[in-house]
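haha ok so turns out i had the wrong file open the whole time. this is the CORRECT one, sorry everyone. sequence first:
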Amino acid sequence: MKSKKLSMPIMAHNQVLYFGLAMLDRCLAISVTYNTIFESRAWLIQLFTRCGKLKRQIICKDLFQKPEYLASNAEEDILYISDGVANAVHAMNPRGCVLFTFTSDTMYAPRGLSVDLDGHIYVACDQGVIQIHKDCGKNRMLLRLLDNQTGIETVFFDRKLNCIVIFGKNCSQASVFKFADQLKKQELEE
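then structure:
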């Protein structure tokens, strides 16, 4: 297995933290935050080529509040970003244009997200797991937690096995749910 070193910008006297990873337009997208001279945090999404060179940075201050988690569709031409402060999920194209923003009263503190082969988005949040239709027109609560349960930290959709893997906030236990193909398509079309 070959490895490449990413060219990271050097920020003196700042603590840099790296969060979400996803592929976009044949590049690795990374959600990054760092301290500014004003003692606040700045966010950006960096795109690296497969050779490890920084291709582009998307400054998030006008677009998002806290874009920690990332996912992309199978074609790698749409990047999905969960924004825990704004309680939103954003879809962005490779040029950095926001395609849509999803918000809902049933989604609080979205975190990890994943995308199935049809382009539907699965979002982990404090209430459970929400499934968002690929065009943002419909959504449903796929897994609702009881009031005394802690939220879901992340969700992974296995495109080959057609199942989702869900991790709770303490990440000590995972749950796997397998979809019946026909049921999945019928419920979203209704």
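The radius of gyration is 17 Å.
again sry for the mixup
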